[in-house]
Structures are given as C-alpha cells and as structure tokens.
Amino acid sequence: MFLFFFEKIRGTKINSDRLCIAGKDWKSVRPIKKWGIHREMVIARHGRQWKRLWTGCGAGGAPARQLWLTVIQRGVNGAQQWSTAVKRGRGNLQLTTTVIPSPHIPIDQSNDKMVANGKEVDHFSDEEDSDLEIDYTDIEERFRPKFQDTFDNLIVVEGAPIVDESKRGRLIKAIISTFAKKDLKISESKIEMPLDPNNQSKGYLFIELNSPQDADRAVRNLHDYPFDKKHRFTVIKFTEVERFAHVAENFVKPVLEEYKPRSHLKSWLADPQGRDQMIIYQGDDVKVAWHGRNGAPDVAHKRTKWTDAYCAWSPDGTMLATIHNQGVALWGGANFDRIHRLYHPKVKLIDFSPMENYLVTWSDQPIELPTDPQAPQIFSEDDEGNSIAVWDVVTGKLLRTFPVLTPSSEEEGGARIKFQWPMFKWSGDDRYLARVTPGQAISVYETPGMGLLDKKSIKIEGVVDFEWCPLSENERDAILEARNLLPSASFDEPSSDSKPKKNAGERSNMLAFWTPEVANQPARVSLMNIPSRDTLRSKNLFNVHDAKIHWQSNGDYVCVKVDRHTKTKKTTYCNLELFRVRDKSFPVDVIEIKDTVTAFAWEPKGNRFILITSNDPNLSQGPTPGTTIKTNIHFFGMDVKKGDFRLFKTYDGKTCNSVHWSPKGRHVVTATLGSSSKCDLEFWDTDLDESDKDLGSGISLLSSVEHYGMTELEWDPSGRYLASIGSMWLSSLECGYTIWDFKGELMHKVTLERFKQLLWRPRPRSLLSKETQRKIRKNLREYSKQFEEEDQLEASNVSAELVAHRRRLLDEWDSWRRHSKQELATEASRAGKLSAAQKAADPADSEQIEEWIEEVIEETETML
Fold it and tell me: Which homologous superfamily is 154-245 in?
C-alpha cells in the first residue's frame, strides 16, 4: 500500500494567498474561503496516485500555531488514506498516515482515477473557479485543533509585596526562585501581575503552571508559606475563585456531626475480678482475652484480619496498634473503636514514646507522593524520600519525617552503621527524641516542634551509642501533676499539704554515651545533661572491644558492660562500670569478670542484677545443632552496710542464656532460648527466708520445668504469671503457649497451629498514693480472706455447673435407654416372642433372694 509521508519540511510559511513548499509534482494550488477561515487546497501527484491536501490557517491569513493537513489518497485496493500533519512550530511539519474508508469521495475503478462531483481531479486548473461539493465535516471535526479549555493549571497567589514598575522584575525573580525551591519551574512569561492606575502592584498575581498536578503541588506546598518576614503567601487554584466570589451573604451554619462519646480508654481496669488482658494472634484471628485464675483465656473481643503484620500495645496499655499496608491503626475503648489512622505505606516497625504522646513509624520503602488525588495528602515535597515518620498520638497529625542514615562499610572514627531499632530514642518525659550518627554526633530534637535542640547536633567524635536515663516514679508523678494529669494526693484522704512543688515537672534529662579508642585517645564513657550539654561524669577505658549501656528502671544506676581484650587481642574479658547516678560526684564501682558475659539484667526498681557468663569454647562458634553451651549464673547486689556492689551467689553448670525479671521484682526466670536440644525454665525467688548476716541466703530455686519449642517469654504486669511462647514467626517446633505462675506451676497449656503472638496488656501506674498502698499491705490478711471466699465461690460455681452438666447427660442416657427398651418390647411382641419381663410374670417360676449388707455407721474406741 502506498504511503505518502513528509518527514520534515523546513522553511514553510502559510498564508491566505499561497502555499510555498519545496518539492515537485504539485498539480495545483488554489485558495478557498470556507466558514470564514482561509484555507489552501493542494492537489499533488506521485505517479498515478493523486492526493488532495487541505491546510488550515488562522483567520485573516495570520500563520496558525497549530494547523492540520488532510491527504486524500487512492490505495491499491480502492481504500482511502487520510493523513494528518500537525505543526509543532513554525517551519516544521510532520505527517502521519492512517487508513480510514470514506463514502464521500467516489473512486473510478476502471480508469484508476479519482473523481469528485463528476469530474476527474486531474481536470481542475488554477484558473477554474469551481468548488468541490465534498462533505469534509467528519474529517474536520476529527482533526480540529483542541484548545485548552480548563484553568486547572492556573493558581492565584495573594500576599506578595506591593511594588512599583521598577521593582517588578526583582519581585518576579524572587517568586520564581521560591517556586524553584519546591521543584516547581515557572517562567516570567507565565506570571501575570496586575497593576493599579498608579503602576503599583495589587499584592496578588496569576501564575500558569505546566500541569494541573503542578498546581496541586503548589497549593499544597506554598499555601501559608513565609515569603519573607512580613509577607506570607496564600495560594489557591484559579478554579476556586468563583466559589469564593459567590459566598452567600447570610451565614449558613454548617451541619455538625452528632457527637458520639468514646468509651473510656482505660475501661478494662474496672474489671471486678481485677483480671489482666492479653492479645492472642493465631492465623488471621486476633483475640483480646481475659486471663482467669485457672489460666484459661476468656475471649472478650475477636476480629479476623485485624492486622496485616503484628499487634503492639502502647506502654500503659491505653491503645492497641495494628500494622497494615497503608499504615498504622490505633484502637481503644471497651469495644476497641478506631482512634486514628496514621497513613504511612508499607510500614514495618513502630515505637511509642514512654508517656504515649508520640509514635515513630519506619518503612523500608521511601515516602512517595501519591498520584491518586483521592489518596490521603499527608506528606509534602520535603517528606519525599524519607522513611521515618513521627506522629502526635493525641491528634493523629504528622509532626516530621526523617531519612534513614545510609549504611556504609566504615564511617568516621571507626564506627560502623548498623540497622537498629528503635532508631530514635525517647527521653523519659517525652520532651526529647534523639538518634546517633555513628562516629560523628548525637542529634537531639525537641517536641512537639521537632526542631533540632539549639539548632545544631552534639558533635562527639567517634560516638557509637547512647541511652537516655529513665524517670523514677517520683519524677514521673511530678511531671504528671504539673500537667494536671495526676492528682497530687490520695483519693481517699485529700490533703492540702501534698501540693506539687513549683516547677515540679521541670527536670533536666540525662544521657549516657560511649566512644571507642581513636588514634591515641582512649575509649570513654560519659554522662551528659540535656539541654545544657554539660558533661557530668566521664571515665576513660582501655583495650575496649565493645560496650553496652544498661540503665536501672528508676535511673538510680547505670551499668556499662565493657568487653575488653588483652594486649595480644587473643582473649576477651569483661568489666562492669557501675555509676551511682543519685550520689554526689557520680561514684563508679568496677567489677571485673574473667569470663564472657552473655546476658545482663537489672532488677526492676531494685539494686540487684544478674549476670550469665560462659567460658565454653563452643561459645565463639555460635549456636550449632546438638551443642549445649554451659553457663554460670551470678547474683549481684548492693551491700548497704559497705556501700558497694558485691557478689551474692553463683550457680555453675547451667544451660540458660537469658534473664527475665518479674515487673514487680524479687522473682526471676532464667531460660534457655534458641536451642533445639534444651528448653529449660528455672524459677527463682531472691527474697526467700533472707537473713541479715548472709545477703544471698534468700536466693532459692523454686522449680525447674521445660517447654519444648519455646521462642520467647512474657511476664504479665502483675508479676504473678509467666507465658512461655512458641511462635511460628521464630520457627518454633511446637507452636502454642503455656501459662505458669511465679512459682513455676503449670496453669494452662495449649498447642495452636499458625500461632504467632501473645502479648500481655500493660497496666498504667497505680493512682493510689504510697501511704494508701502501705495500708493495704499492712491489712493484706484481711483482704486475703475476702479473696479466698471469692475463689471458693468461683470454684463452687464451676463445680455446680459440672454437676448439672453430668446430670443432664445421665438423664439423656436414661431417656434413650427407656425408649430403646420400649422399641425392643414392641418388636418382640410383633414376632410372637415373650419378653424377659413377661416370662418372669409367673410367681411359680420366680425365686426371691435376700442379701444382707452391713455398713459401719460409727466406731468408738474405749481405752481401759
């Protein structure tokens, strides 16, 4: 099939008189005026093929910015080819070809010529004033230029400085620069700035952007944007002007949604039996269950596909967080109504602040601005490419996003960047969050503004890691009282003497950090005050291989576990650097451990800690199947009389590798996790029959049990029960969970397929004053009698239900037996047989047998 194609025609100029095209074989060129628009008709010949070319131009002969060209072409099989050329700019035509059959132009197949209105096309001449009566409306409608009839790419910017004509150029350049900062490119020709009769600008201007999407971005990123100290932009789309211009004169009060009060977020604390709750995640089902006295769960709430990944409680148990592909959902109340939806696509990890005011989310995929206009418009241009987001839990608003530090093989100061979570660490009062740039600095940000403290990071050469000092109960109470979130006295006995002190909530935070050996400088552990950045205490260390910082829960002590190596670097040993933070000058106790320390744990709210050490040669090879690593357990504590830490007791020949203190202290569990051959649980009491002479005499092993396939342990908030869990996420050989009491006695055990997660619901701090708590402990025996009666009543209720169930089963059996006997007798009578009862009806054939049964009613012994 013949294809007629202009690749490029240069030097083309079109007007109402003539068409000048460099080429040959053009039959005729004649002007035609139709519908008030000047057109040029061109008949071209290429061999035996004839073409008619229509070129449109602007009215009055002005050159058109866009024009169309139609080619009527005779094909080999009698088809017609229609071609369109669009002028992309003056002097540049490009022609494309499509095949469309048309009934408007007849074709003479006999002589292979194109005819129109009964005449051959070849017979037309330049002088002939004959017009072809051919209907081209469908073609012209199809190829008619489409002009932009929308104003979606126009915006109105109000709040610009008012300047005269002399400063107009400078202002426009400044506006173009401001838009460029938001990655919006505009030119001066696309800015219209109206002027008043005095040649003064009116404070607003119109800007044409490249696309409606750019206009949306401009409104999103530049509305309420500070242009300078005195001027702030107000940006709206041009299409919104009409809506604002037709605002009704009379105010119409908007229809407000009916207020629906939420259920109390701490309603579970009002349970009459004082039970704790837990999350049980199995398969696609998530259950919130009460934990009864017998250990069996009582399901209170259940949902299918409640989460796409996992669940997490807030630190005080107020809210439940579920992870989804679109972000994080927060739930609370008796019915677990949704509180907020935090939009962060592909979120993987979350972290609550200690006082539940903020939430940090992380996604392995950088933030991208959504192209779907219906998607939540949470992020701005500045957030694009970041992976960490910080949210206000109360309002659900995004506070700020951060990028993830790019890992590299080696950073400044010899520090390696490793992925660790949480990436940001919170101070105990939620005032600050900080993260470390290994080898360089610690960046501290203030809440809620999320600005950098003093607008600069804390430069620390070689810094590796840091930890915030936790708050004590008294400090936490003082902060809550200052914020009017906690009563300053007991509910039972309000007193005017227990008013919070002035500025009680104000407290200087503290963090501990360590730096390795760099060049000739020794390694160093330091305590720093925040926000003053003063170094409170520092200690130099030598031959340091690694260090870990462990704060006691009340912030009274901090232990820096330092792994050191000999000068030959062939063997390693450990030092414990114990800082007494509450004492003057921050004294340091040093305990040297010759073996490798594999686990360390402080007693909550106490001054004791446990070490697990090992000198097994297989330890350096890591966990291998069938290999059991021998370990030793060491109990340390504070000797009040001598004022230093000392070793209380050591137990050798163990296999445990993890320590789990009860939240209330005193009781502790050591366990063997991650081993395919050992799964031991050892329950210890550290205060059993303790004497003043021997401080370690109260440490006793209560019981030793096993749970095959366990992968993790969870204490309930009361410290009375422990859950050993076998999760499919950690490739457990036996998925399920077991509930133990604090003595190691089995309460409840269940094996579940596709079991994933068990989480106890945390409890907030008690609202009772310490004096009220002391009174309760003093009268605990009276309360224990009441509890025993409730336990007996509950047990009797269970027994009554069991007896009623058994009686019902027995009645059903008796009824079935009587019915079966009647059916058997009926069938026997039909067969003419006598039943056993009928055969025994004759007294002569029967025999009566009497049997005496003796029973001792009472037995009395008399001493002679």
Answer: RRM (RNA recognition motif) domain (3.30.70.330)
